[in-house]
Amino acid sequence: MDWIAFSLLNGIIYGLLLFMVSAGLTLIFGMMGVLNFAHASFYMLGAYFAYSLQGVVGFVPAIVGATLLAGLVGAGVERWFLRRVHRYGHAHELLLTFGLSFVIAELIKLFFGNYPVDYRIPRSLDVAAFVLGQQQYPAYRLLMGAVALAMFAAIYLLLTRTRVGIVVRSAIYKPRMVEALGHNVQLVFMGVFGVGAALAGLAGAIAGAFYTTSPNMALEVGVMVFVVVVVGGLGSLGGAMLASLLIGVLTSLAVGVDRSAADLLAFLGARDWAEGVGGLLTLKLSSLAATLPFALMLLILLLRPSGLMGDKD
Amino acid sequence: MKKTRLASAALPALLLLAAGAQAAPVKIGMVETLSGPQASSGQAYRAGVRYAIDRLNAAGGWNGEPVQLLEYDNQGGPSGASDKLKAAISDGVQIIVQGASSAIGGQITEDVRKYNLRNPGKEVVYINVGAEALELTGEKCNFHHFRFAGNADVRVQALVKAMKENKSLGTKVYAINQNYSWGQDMEKATVQNAAAGGYQVVEKTLHDVNKIQDFAPYVSKISASGAETVMTGNWSNDLLLMMKASKAAGLKAHFATVFLDQPGNISNAGDLAVGHYVAHVFNAEASGAEGDRFVADYTARIGHAPVFVEPQTVFGLEMVADALKRTKPVNGALDVNAFAKTLEGTRLKTPGGEISVRAADHQALMPMVVSVVSKDARYKADGTAFGFKPVKAFTGEEASTPAQASCKMQRPD
Fold first, then answer.
1. CB within 8 Å: B249 and A137
2. How far does the CA of residue B324 sit from the closest CA of chain A (Å)?
3. How far is B158 from chain A (nearest CA, A)?
4. Do A136 and B249 touch (CB under 8 A)?
């Protein structure tokens, strides 16, 4: 029983973390139509910025600083790079961000080396929130979950309840009309891209301390983030949240299931046959845990290509 | 008239070229992962190889000429390695060196075997300094492959013996490994050593390689099993993230590992790595004055102390250098088969201890040291306050496990 409670909690928190990273990606895509391949690089930048600042200003200010810096870099990328290729279409934007992800990864290696850096959560936060059975639950995980929820609420309210949100949303659908009304559409786009990058930076600054901060972290999380966005529906914030939680809980629960297709076939009396065949039939579900999200993505693409909550085809 | 003059001019030039090719220096080709996410491992091997070759050349090289080191980037995959191996062979490389990844090692050893079958008299030899999958000295073993590294059987046996002796092993062991040849070998070895170690394998887990960010679900499983020791062959992020997650969950079990000394692990894990064990080839503290001298010299030349896979790479290449010294040139060139036969009989005292090669399967009998992460270690890791304190040292013979029956080696006449 303890085990199920822990697994659910683990899955939900990991899902919330995935949401933190993918929120910016889906936001940028939904608002600007740019599929930002370099998104996970901003996640990595956030972690490295926080690592560099931590020694100077302390942990919490470092996280705030890293968020702002990642946002600034994002805004700069939009202002000086993306804007120039915008008129050539989405393929060029995609290629540009793809190239950018390599440049950022190599720069990180140049400045910080190949190995993980010593970025850790401060001792004051490194405590157990509660103990269940013989296991502690780290308080920092709960904190990560809380930040993700706060982020979700803030973006949602900003877009639906404020004047800024109205301008942003209308700039997407009728840019010329908004421009005619006296709003600076270029600035809106730069702002959206900057905020998206800042969200990734925040996620990196927070998660980098809990997991690891290494030049590979963008690669590790990048693929999963795309899975989240595709499953949730490109451009849908709510979809990203739903997909993140689904993937988090799915992988977490799968780890505990030491069953294979052969066990299932045993009900039909075909266990011996299945074990004789081997291969996929005897592979335990637990050993596939990290692969399940990809299977889920395949399923979604087959059954509902626009994603769980997507409205674009 | 004109034609013949050209021909008569070309002939001596060609002869000159041919003569030049015969007296060409021995070329050692490193086909290693030098770019991409796993580049850091490849670069560690490269540092070790460069150090050993520099020393070989400082001592006069081979046949009066310095040995040439050529570096090829296999880009982290078997297909890239296969291409680069062809390039190396066409560049005249006779000795191939590689270490990172058993998957790549498996590709190279097969390619080398087939090439040698088809090109008798132009053989190349593969010096494996780190691919530890058992099949390389088992089903896939061949005369032109030599492994100067451990393997799962050797590492687990050393860990079990040493940890049992200092009473930290316990009776419940959990095996968690990456789901590919190396991880599966580790799992099998953990099960096989159960009787000798007096423990029970409470649970076995195989998981995807370097794909998992969140190890919390795995740690709850380990915790629920009541394991006292977690035996794992995990490396890189899969080890680091698992240690961090287990510390966060307050898990009390010891980790028994193979790659804990990879740079970045101790600096990133800090005090939460304390009490975890590693089975490695070299620990300067266990090797006394000879070890100190090696560390000082290596640091002076390379810029950092020899850690992780670097010592075994250096020792392996020093074995190669020693065998080269005793291989006589044939028409000014290296006869690879003669070299391989000499290498089989080479016995060398290295800073880690004496190393020899077992002729039956070409597995080197490497010394093993089991160490525990502690503040008392004389050599600190990654600039932290912690280092690896030796618990027990095994000589190459003590650490060795019998050759696998599946190895049927075809020897040249």
1. yes
2. 34
3. 27
4. yes
Beta-carbon-side half-sphere exposure of residue B94 (alpha carbons within 13 Å): 19
Q: Given this model, what pLDDT does residue B2 score? A: 47
- Note whether B102 and B71 are within 8 A (CB): no
The pTM of the full predicted model, rounded to 2 decimals, is 0.84
Alpha-carbon torsion (A148, A153, A154, A159), positive or negative: positive
Strand, coil or helix: A313: coil
For residues B312-322, b (16+ Cβ closer than 10 Å) or e, as one string?
bbbbbbbbbbb
8 A C-beta contact, residue A306 and residue A233: yes
The answer to whether the beta carbons of residues B316 and B362 sit under 8 Å apart is no
pLDDT digits (tens, 9 = 90+) for A192-240: 999 999 999 999 999 999 888 988 888 888 889 999 999 998 888 899 9
Nearest residue on chain A to B223, alpha-carbon basis: A135
Tokens of A204: 């990196």
Cα B295–B314–B358 angle (5° rounding)?
Answer: 130
Q: Which of B260, B238, B223 is nearest to B373 (CA)?
A: B260
Q: Which domains does chain B have, with CATH numbers?
A: 25-150+289-365 (3.40.50.2300), 153-280+367-399 (3.40.50.2300)
Q: Are A245 and A19 in contact (CB under 8 A)?
A: yes
The pLDDT of residue B244? 87
Is B250 in contact with A136 (Cβ distance < 8 A)?
yes
Among B39, B213, B218, the residue with its CB nearest the CB of A211 is: B213
Backbone angles phi, psi at B361, to 5 degrees: -135, 5
Interface residues on B facing A, Cβ-Cβ cutoff 8 A: 37, 39-40, 43, 179, 205-208, 210-214, 216-218, 220-221, 223-224, 237, 240-241, 244, 248-251, 262-265, 267-268, 270, 382, 384
Distance CA B367, CA B150 (A): 9
Confidence of residue B82 (pLDDT cuts 50, 70, 90): very high
CA B132 to CA B269: how far, in whole Å?
A: 25
Radius of gyration (C-alpha) of chain A in whole angstroms: 21
CA dist., res. A198 & res. A68, Å (int): 6
Length of chain A: 313
Q: Do B179 and A287 touch (CB under 8 A)?
A: yes
CA distance, residue B381 to nearest chain A CA (Å): 13
Integer angstrom CA distances of residue A74 from B134, B162, B234: 48, 53, 36
Residues of B in contact with A144 (CB under 8 A): none
The encoded tokens of residue B157 equal 């046996």
Q: Token digits for B244?
A: 């961090």
SS3 at position B103: helix
ipTM metric: 0.82
Please name the amino acid found at residue A70.
A
**Which token pair is A112?**
């910080």
State the Cα–Cα distance between residues A191 and A178, nearest whole angstrom.
15
Is residue B312 classed as helix, strand or coil in its secondary structure? helix
Alpha carbon B70 to its chain centroid, in Å, reads 19
> Tokens 């099993």 appear where?
B225
Measured between CA atoms, how close is A259 to chain B, in angstroms?
Answer: 12
Average pLDDT on B7-29 reads: 59
Residue type, position B386, single letter: F
Six token digits for residue B306: 């020899």
